[in-house]
Amino acid sequence: MKTWIALLSLLFAPGLLFAADSGPKGHVSSATVAALTREIKANLPPGWTVTFNMESSEIEVERTEKTLANWVGPSSPIEESKLLAYQLKLRVTPLISTQEYNRLSMENEERAGRIKKLREVLLNTPGIREIRPGLFYPLTEPGKRAVLEYKRLVPTLHELPDYYYRDISLFWERFAEFQANDQTVQAECDQVPVQLRQLLDPYLEQAIAQKTVRLLMVKLRAQIPEGWSVSYDDEFHLISVIRNAPTSISTITPSSGIDAKPEVGRFSFSLRVLPLMSQADYGQKKADNQAIKKRMSAIYEMLAKSPSVVGIRAGGPKPLARFHSEVPEEQARIEQYYRLQDELYDLPDGYFKDISLSWTEALRFGMGPLPDDPAVRSETEAVLKKMVQVPSNY
C-alpha cells in the first residue's frame, strides 16, 4: 500500500527532513487554545501542569516532579540515569481542513515516491557514499548532480499536522522514548499521551487502530527475551523491536566504501503499521503486479537484445537496475519500463486483526544493519523468527 508517511520512515534520519512550507498561515484562536488547555488540565493526574508558550506557539505538558530516567532511541548510547522531568509538546497552527490535508498528502505521496527511487539509485551508484541515512557524499561529478537533485526534492515535502481541535491544527512534537527507572512513574508517563490523544481529532483516525497496535505490542513483548524492548513511533507508525545493549553493527550497501567501519549502537528492526488491506484487495493488487511485471519482463527482453542499451545484466532484471541508451527508440522503451515500475503496488507482508503490517525494506531485502558478534546475530535471528509468526500471512 502506497503511503508517503511510511516512506518517510525509511528515507530520512531526524534532522534531514525539511518542509516545503513552514505550516499553515493565518490566525490561531486564543479562545480555542484556552479551551484545549482547560480540557487537558482536567484529564491530567495530580502533579502535572499544562501551559501555553505564546513565543513558540506550543502547549507544554509536564510532570512536575523529576524522576531518574533517560531519553533513549535505537542509536542512543547507554548512559547513567538522570533526574529528568517528563514533557510533551503540541505545536499549535491555524487549521488545515481535512480536504486540504488530503490534497497535500497526495502531493507528498507522489514526491516521496520520486525521492525513494532516487535514493535507491544513489545507493547503487559507484562514487556516491551514504554517510548516514539520507545524507550522501558524492565522489564524482555525475554523482554530485544526482545528489543535488536529491537535495532539491527533499525540501518539497509538506509538513502536515497530526491532529485538529475545533479550528486549530496540532503537531505532536516528538522526542526520544522516555524510560523511567520507576515502573509506576513509567506507567503514568505512558498513560498521559493516550488520554490527551482522546481529546483530539486525528487526520488519519480511520487509518490506524491504536488498540490493535497496543495488543500487537503485548504479543511481541511476550516473544522476545530479556534485554529486548518494544516501542511504537506514532508519527511514522513503526513498531520497533530493540536490543537494549549496544553492539557492533555493520551496514552493508553497494555504495559502502572499502574503508567503511562498523558502528556501535542498539540493534533494532521494525514493522510498519498500515491501514488494513482486505484479502480481496490484496489479491487484486497482487494480480495487477504480476501483470505489470510480465509486461516489464517483455520489455526487458527487447532491451537485452539491443547492443545500444547499457546496464543490462545476465540473469534478468534486478530490483534497482538502471538502463541507458542514446538511441531514441530504445530510450522510449526504457521510459516505458520505468513507468510500469512506478505502477507497482507496495503490498503489505501480513496483517493482525484490523491492521496491515510491512517489514521495513532494509530488513525485507537484507540490506539493513547486521550485528557483527556471532552470538548476538544468532540471538537476533531467533527473535526475528518469533516475530514473523505473530502476524498472519495474506
Quick structural summary:
This protein is of the alpha+beta class.
Report on the structure:
This protein is 38% helix and 23% strand. It has a domain at 279-343. The protein has helices at 4-11, 30-42, 98-123, 141-153, 183-197, 210-223, 279-304, 328-343, 361-364, 374-388; strands at 48-53, 58-63, 67-72, 82-84, 87-94, 128-132, 135-138, 163-165, 168-173, 177-180, 201-202, 228-233, 238-243, 247-251, 263-265, 268-275, 350-352, 355-359, 369-371. Helix 3 (98-123) packs antiparallel against helix 4 (141-153). With 394 residues, it is an alpha+beta fold. The two termini are 13 Å apart.
Keywords:
23% strand; 10 helices; 394 residues; alpha+beta; disordered N terminus; five-stranded antiparallel beta sheet
| Number of helical elements | 10
Report on the biggest sheet: 6 strands, antiparallel
Which structural class fits the helix and strand makeup?
A: alpha+beta
Instruction: Provide the succession of SSEs.
Output: HHEEEEEHEEHEEEHEHEEEEEHHEEHEH
Give the rounded overall mean pLDDT. Answer: 81
Instruction: Name the overall outline.
Output: globular
Strand content: 15-25%
Helix content range: 25-40%
Biggest sheet, spatial arrangement of strands: 1-2-5-9-8-11
Rounded to the nearest angstrom, the radius of gyration is 23 Å
Tell me the number of strands. 19
Uncertain segments of ≥5 residues (pLDDT<50)?
Answer: 1-23
Q: Termini separation (Å)? A: 13 Å
